[in-house]
Every structure is written in structure tokens, then in C-alpha cells.
Amino acid sequence: MKKGKKLYEGKAKIIYATNDKNLVIQYFKDDATAFNNQKKTTIEGKGVLNNRISEHILSNLSQIGIKNHLIKRLNMREQVIKLVEIIPIEFIVRNVATGSITQRLGIEDGTILKEPLIEYCLKNDKLGDPLISEEHILTFDWATKKEIDKVKKLILRINDFMIGMFRGVGIKLIDFKLEFGRIKIDGKNEIILADEISPDTCRLWDSITDKKLDKDRFRKDLGDLIPAYTEVAKRLGILHEQSNVSAVNVTKLSSIKRRKK
């Protein structure tokens, strides 16, 4: 597959055209950002780990019938994905209260929620991705009621699956962000999951110690996030190839014990 011109560059990924109008190549960058891009740096190897972790999770979601944009992983940093019309909403799924919700509502950090809470944010970096209501979405035609209902059902299935998947490897799924898009499948318009799922987009805590294994390590200056992301990948069983880490050529990884073939 031939990589064409750059179509879009975000904070963590670059999208390139291909010779197939329905497919694009997604490149995972090493850039780390927080607080609406006010804090940023480059962390070598982050994109490689996110590529592998997201591929693993999306592939497993496909196996339980959750349609998503992933076609296949091309190499250490790139995936072939379906070109979709992105719904301009970030869907935040919370199982435990932490981060911005505790600040907004005065909720004690670490409070376990009775049931998953879904919040909506307008996908707009210039505005700081503001929190919005379902009524805003419908009023401004960002999505239809039918689409929102479909997305909420998908979100609850995804959340149930991911809670179980991470619990099985000693990790608590605290919260995460999802995006969805519109695509034609067999001539019919459908809504599919259309974003990465990785420690960049999830809050993941060790089940016993509550150690942060996600981007909060960067947000809160808790230490290098590469060992944490590597730990997530190891627990998920996807660092069994020597090339997974060694090909990154990251000096920060030199002290990490890696599983060999």
C-alpha cells in the first residue's frame, strides 16, 4: 500500500492518504501533551507502544462484534485504518471519579461510581474541548438521537469488555476516551469506533497499589511513562517479539527487563 500526502496531524497521530480512497495510514507520534497542549514534550518510544496496545485492544473488540476502524498494523508505528467521517464529540467513560470531574464537582478522588458515567466534550482544541450536554449535540446537529443512542450502547459493551480484560491482568480501568465516526458498510450508513485505545486515552491503575500506568505519569510528573506503558503491554501479553522494544532504539528502555523469544 502506497503512503500518500498528509491529510491531518493531531497531537498524537498523523493521517496519510493511500492509493485506496477508503483507507488511510495512521502514524503514532512520540509527542506527549497535556492540559490542552499547554504541557508537551517528546517521549521516544511512546508511539510504538501505543500502536501495539491499541492494535491489540481494537482487534479483541472486533472479535466480540464491535466494529472499528482498524484494518491491520503495518509496522512499529503505523496502522491501516478505514477513512471515516468523525463525529466531533469526545465520549468520556468514567468508572471511578478522578481528574477533572473531582475538581468540577468536589467528588473525592477515587470514588467508585455506581454505574458507568458517560460525558460529552466538543472535539475542538481551540475551545479546550468543552464539556457539553446531549441537548447541545442534538441542537447543533453534531449527531442524531439515533446515533447517540447507538454510541451509548456501544460504549457500555466496550466498557464491560475492557474492564474484564484489564482486571484479568491486574489493572483497574478508571476512565477512558472514545471517538466514533460514520462510514458506509454494505451500502448502509453505520457508526463505528474510530480512535486509538491506549494508555494515552485511558486511566489505568494497578489493582493492588493504585500505581498510575497511563498518561497521568506525564500530566502529574509521576516519573517516566515508558516503563508504565511497557508494563501495560507486558501484562496484555503483546511484548513477546524482540523487535517490539529493541527496534525503538530508546535509551530510556535500556534498564527495563524485556521478554525475549
User: What is the chains' assembly state?
Assistant: single chain
Output the number of helix runs: 7
What do we call the CATH homologous superfamily of the largest domain? Answer: ATP-grasp fold, B domain
The structural domain count equals: 2
The end-to-end distance, rounded to whole angstroms, is: 29 Å
Count of distinct strands: 15
Rg calc: 18 Å
Which percent range fits the helix content?
A: 25-40%
Class from helix and strand fractions = alpha+beta
| CATH class division of the largest domain | Alpha Beta
Q: Could you tell me the mean pLDDT?
A: 91
CATH architecture annotation of the largest domain: 2-Layer Sandwich
What does this structure look like?
The strands form 4 sheets. This protein has a 5-stranded antiparallel β-sheet with strand order 1-2-3-7-6. The protein has a 5-stranded antiparallel β-sheet with strand order 11-10-9-12-15. It is 28% helix and 33% strand. The longest helix has 23 residues, at 145-167. Helix 1 packs parallel to helix 6 (225-235). The protein folds into 2 domains: 3-84 and 226-255, 2-Layer Sandwich (Phosphorylase Kinase, domain 1); 87-206, ATP-grasp fold, B domain (D-amino Acid Aminotransferase, Chain A, domain 1). It has helices at 46-63, 100-105, 134-139, 145-167, 216-219, 225-235, 243-246; strands at residues 3-9, 13-18, 23-28, 31-34, 39-42, 70-73, 78-82, 85-86, 89-97, 111-122, 131-132, 171-178, 180-185, 188-193, 202-206. It has 261 residues and is α+β, with helices and mostly antiparallel strands.
Topology:
Layout: E1 3-9, E2 13-18, E3 23-28, E4 31-34, E5 39-42, H1 46-63, E6 70-73, E7 78-82, E8 85-86, E9 89-97, H2 100-105, E10 111-122, E11 131-132, H3 134-139, H4 145-167, E12 171-178, E13 180-185, E14 188-193, E15 202-206, H5 216-219, H6 225-235, H7 243-246
Antiparallel strand pairs: 1-2, 2-3, 3-7, 4-5, 6-7, 8-13, 9-10, 9-12, 10-11, 12-15, 13-14
